[in-house]
Amino acid sequence: MNSERPEERDAPEPAEPTAPDDRADGSPIGRRVLLGTLGLGALGVVAAPTLQRGLEAFLGGVSGKDPTGLTGLLPNGGGFRYYSVTASVPRKDDTNYRLTVDGMVDRPASYTLADLRALPQTRLVHDIQCVTGWRVPKTPFEGVRLSTLLDAAGVDPSAGAVRFTCFDGAYTESLTLDQARRSDVLVALKMQDKPVGHNHGGPVRLYVAPMYFYKSAKWLSGITVTRAVRPGYWEERGYDVDAWVGRSNGRDDAPTG
Amino acid sequence: MHPPVEAPARSTRVRRFSRGEKWVHRAAAALMGVCVATAACLYIPALAELVGRRELVVRIHEWAGLLLPVPVLAGSVSRAFRKDLGHLNRWGPHDRIWLRAVLRRDHRRASRPAAKFNAGQKTYAAWIAGATLVMLGTGLLMWFTRLTPLMWRTSATFVHDWLALTIGVVLAGHIGMALGDREARRGLRTGEVSREWAEREHPLWRP
């Protein structure tokens, strides 16, 4: 461009005898602002734990009374964040949802939503902690204990782990059998006392109360009993397999289990 | 590219930016745009639901952020760009007068003396450079989680989130100012501005 202006590239700079900001004796304020910003950033990292606690307390209080929901968009503003690893997730409901249980079991099974609702339901209320930092206090989950489904299927004594697959087509998770049999691990049908909505992983999601929320796989469609743990989607990408809240992923959040 | 008919004659145009400087700004703006757009897709629930593909969006965000300082570093081979960095760095007495006028909401031209860059542009340039480096540092702490000790990632995330919000607001102000000044935009597009604009907006500038 500008081919008609050949002087553009190396026009000799005219003398600037009176340009006041061209003198080297001006104060280097720009450099000071830049270094000051860097210093404040470093200070922010150091002071973050204290600042974060204060802000969470303040914004948590405000967001309860905020009808616009805008505080939910602020960092630490409370509430859930939507994470999906795929472009779109099919919707499943009473007519087409199936949960299969297979692998190293005596009696593979396939459950409809009605089948799951007919089994004994357990309601748990714990905080939710995401590995990226957000926490939602006292969230009720309700559903069938995973151990109920495993017992019904009859797990092979040589099996050691459970693998979960999801109908988004990509997400996977795993637990050891001991973890999977805990009484606070649910195949959840309800969240916040309502059926689990599509965006929250409905109609059925896993709920692993004592672990970071990436373990609570959304859109659960398959439970496979395996010999050993196979790392799940995020675990292939660096997160811990044994994701106890406060004791993994280099974090020290208060336990949720 | 031919000047529009209403543009003043050639003789009244003055050079403001060299080709190198224009490309530094273009490349930095494009990378910043990618960072902001991908950040919005990671952060705003409605957009996250629409876009999904979290892994891919994160990778694009990380690489755009990592490359963001490159245009400025590459531009420093240009003498004109280095000279402008000097203009941006050095403050004179007129810059204090300009800032005081802004604080008093004094809009008279005479109370806003500026050389090639006014005090607002100087502040913005220095702050956004510092903020970008803080975002890069905290971003790297979040990216390479295994390299950092306990707690650092949470703290880095905290700073990264809040500073991102601040940068969003400041960047909107920067773009808003540009939208309000056609000749300033033409300066970055063509490298030249009208002498009349230069004398009005930057009376102490000797191009």
From TrEMBL, chain A:
Feature: compositional bias, Basic and acidic residues: 1-12
Region ranges (Disordered): 1-28
Entry superkingdom: Bacteria
Domain spans labelled Oxidoreductase molybdopterin-binding: 88-234
SUPFAM superfamilies: Oxidoreductase molybdopterin-binding domain (SSF56524)
Pfam family, one: Oxidored_molyb
UniProt protein name: Oxidoreductase molybdopterin-binding domain-containing protein
Species of origin: Streptomyces lannensis
